[in-house]
Design goal:
There is one protein chain. This protein folds into 2 domains: 79 residues, Arc Repressor Mutant, subunit A; 64 residues, no CATH class. Helix content is 42%, strand content 18%. A hairpin with a 5-residue loop joins strand 3 and strand 4.
C-alpha cells in the first residue's frame, strides 16, 4: 500500500488548496475582498498586514488566478483588486471558516462581525443559506458590520 502522506502530498487537492489559501493572512484578504475592499490601502488597514506580507499574498492570489489586479483610472501607481470567478467560488469556504470561528473562537464577547442578508434584510449566521429566510447567501447578498463586541475590543 502506498503511503498517502509522502508521495501523493503534492497531488492532494487539500494540500494544493492549502498552499494557496491555507494561511490566516490569505483568509483575511479573502474576507476583505468579499466585504468589497478593493484598494491596497483598505486591505492593509482592515487586515493590519505589514506591506511586504500584503504584497506577497496579493501577488500569490493574482498569480494563481483568484484575484485580478487592475490599474486605477487616472493613477497608474494605484491598483484595484477583485475576486475572479475562481476566487468567488471560495465564498462558502470563507463562510465555513467564519461559522467555525464564531462558534469556537469568538471569546466571551461573541462574534466581532455580524452579517445581514440584503435580500430579506435580516441578520444571518455565516453559511451558504440565510438563517432567517432560507435563501442562498452570496458575496453580493450579504453586508458585514462590526458588532458591539468589536467596538469594545478596540
Amino acid at each position: 500500500m502506498q503511503n498517502i502522506h509522502t508521495p501523493l502530498r503534492d497531488q492532494c487537492s487539500i494540500a494544493r488548496a492549502a498552499d494557496l489559501i491555507g494561511d490566516g493572512w490569505t483568509l483575511m484578504l479573502l474576507r476583505e475582498l468579499f466585504w468589497r475592499s478593493t484598494r491596497y490601502e483598505q486591505l492593509a488597514e482592515h487586515t493590519g498586514m505589514a506591506s511586504n506580507v500584503l504584497a506577497q499574498r496579493l501577488r500569490k492570489l493574482v498569480d494563481s488566478g483568484i484575484v485580478t489586479k487592475t490599474v486605477v483610472e487616472n493613477d497608474a501607481r494605484r491598483f484595484d483588486y477583485a475576486l475572479t470567478p475562481k476566487g468567488l467560488e471560495l465564498f462558502p469556504v470563507v463562510m465555513a471558516v467564519m461559522a467555525w470561528g464564531d462558534r469556537w473562537s469568538s471569546g466571551d464577547a461573541g462574534p466581532l462581525i455580524a452579517l445581514h442578508h440584503t435580500v430579506c434584510g435580516k441578520k444571518t449566521r455565516p453559511g451558504t443559506v440565510c438563517s432567517a429566510c432560507g435563501e442562498p447567501l452570496t458575496h453580493d447578498t450579504i453586508r458585514a458590520e462590526v458588532t458591539e463586541a468589536y467596538q469594545q475590543a478596540e
